[in-house]
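Mods, move this if it's the wrong board.
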Amino acid sequence: MVDLKGQYDDIKDVVNPSIQEVIENTAFINGPKVHEFQKNLEQYLNVKHVIPCANGTDALQIAMMGLGLKPGDEVITADFTFAATVEVIALLNLTPVLVDVNEDDFNINIEAIRKAITPRTKAIVPVHLFGQCANMEAIMDIAKAHNLYVIEDNAQAIGASYTYKDGTKVKAGTIGHVGATSFFPSKNLGCYGDGGAIFTNDDDLAHTIRGIVNHGMYERYHHDVVGVNSRLDSIQAAVLDAKLPHLDQYNKARQIAASKYDDVLKSVEGIITPVRTKRCDKACDNCDCHVFHQYTLRVKGVDRDTLVKHLNEKGIPCGVYYPIPLHKQKAYADTRYNEADFKVTNQLVKEVISLPMHTELDDDQIEFITTTITSYING
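Not the wrong board. Structure tokens:
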């Protein structure tokens, strides 16, 4: 699904010396490389504060801790996403409220959010799924009207932009009160292990979060807040800082690959290619509204699982993100949920299939993948 070796080969002349520098200066935790990466990512995102941490799941949990959410507070999020989003809500003894998503872009449904709000609701967690932003302008309007926090799960959309109705563009993850991301190796900006970060323009919140990630300390052995141990190590920061200048190029390569997939597959009966939400006034091939962490098709009238098996037999990796809705997972099942409220999610889990998507995809690989799919469907 990804070619991390090919990507490394292109940048190893920068990555290797950066890692060696960390080893030689032995500043493995909170060393200079962490601070350099933090500052460079702040500049790239045009956000006041980036707080690196150990992984994307921690980033979400720490964001919620920083906002002071209390046990029993309700947090609305999407049913169609990876479990980490709801996992941290449950871990903090908050009440997860799962809602349906849009059929076209797979992101959280605005009307479903409105319907789910109660006097106990305290936050909304939109997930920018597969590399494309949720409808943040509408979400922020809802949050303002109901005095709610917005925590962006930006694990799959680093580098994507969101365009407001007035034409203003901002980077994904910097729109809500706080954003969280993952640097898992397969992400658009990935390290060589685990890593994550939290973004905010709120000075007070940033100060609180900086304490939380480091055992609640601002001064050594003075624990001012309840914290955790969640720090991005210097070697991972060195890798990320070497990759960051290439992020736009990486995302562009993904967009080009997605367009090439589209050119072949959009005319194939039974296949629905990914939708780019039309919020900007440019052709989507020339903007960064979708950065294709995944290239996810929907299949109609085709047995998805049989297609997956066929592709695997031909040596083509593919993924099903996600095969089971969160509201049907044993850990998160709740009698409050009504199946009628998850019509789209329940359908998507039967239809979606993600094809290989990475910066090293070449024309021969794309041709082989698309030819295998079309010949199978067309018989």
